[in-house]
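Chain A, query sequence.
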Amino acid sequence: MPPRPRRLGSPRARVSLRVLSAICLAIGLAWWAKPALAAPAPEVVEPEVVEIVAKLAASAEALAREAGDTTNAPVLGTLMFYDPVRDLAGGVDGAAYGAGDRAWVEAALGVYDLYRQIGGEAGDKRYLFRRDGARVFVGLDGGAGAWHPTMARGQAAFLRLLTRSSRALPQGLRRAVARDAGVGLARAIDAVTAVLAEPGKTLLLPAGATRSLVIEDAWHAVGTPGLEVHAAPTPAGDLATTIGKRSGEAASPQAVLVFAPGQRFSAREMIEVATPDGRGGPSRGIATPTAQAPAQNAGPARLDPASPVAVPDVIAASGAARRYTLSVPSVGAYSIRSTGPSDLVGVLKGPDGVVLARDDDGGEGYNFNLQATLQAGDYTVEVVHCCAGTGPFSIVVAPK
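Chain A, predicted structure.
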């Protein structure tokens, strides 16, 4: 962060340094009238900033690795959510989800915990997640979202989404994430650590903590409304400053304005302050789905042409195939089709194993729709993902 004055705040609530200086002028003049600032300084707690960030970052990266290792776990492609108001995650509308879906959400929420502990406030809209094999989706309820090729890239995009919409994070942290999150999560974390570790530029002030600084060649220091600042001159002409957080203040960017000797109307520099509220952490629950995920059957399931009920299933591993036995009671024309969000190919084989019909995208969306006139007997229906991917679907058989 450059030492010169700069703007502070989010795009919706930017407050220039000059305006902040004017707001604080009356406070500064009142302090100037006193021979010394003798307010008692509270006990100073010096948090290990780099250690805090490194620990949370390691947790987020470990969750991504664990999620990446769930290649054999069911991935249903369920749209899932995290509600920061209720601190609750789950499938949208109680939809069923697999272990692989849940693993991606937990990896993303590891990033959310990191964001909260560097000063980001809880949002008021749900965040949305989805997984399709190695690809992951992240977005904001009612807003835009995007797919990303890997877990780490998805985590980095989520961190960028969080910081971009924050009203409380210091501008220096938001700029660092915006600049480096496109490269990947590790690069974004390194950038955040570098900003917080630079002495006297951006302070991390956890809930209940205070920070002390000796500011060289300074006459006075005042804080924005969310901070309580005590400052006293030293015999060497410097300024001994203690900074704490006021309770009950709304989320907004916080800073300490430093005035040089002889300056009354314009601050010499601004120290940004990140103020996590201490309520972020992995204590959330993940809601049990109201619908149960279909179990992966060991052998071919049976399809009943007399029943119009859709049979739910899932391709849980890349390259896997689902097979069904279709028992036809009498000669007739039949339709065998899939429904759902997955891009599927359907194959119909006769009792002797010869392929009778094959279809890709003949149904609604990316689903197949097999049409055939069949004699009485047992047939095999085979379902695969078109691109060696994974995902949920249902299959329906009906006479034409």
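The CA atoms of residues 74 and 316 lie 4 Å apart. The longest strand covers residues 377-385.
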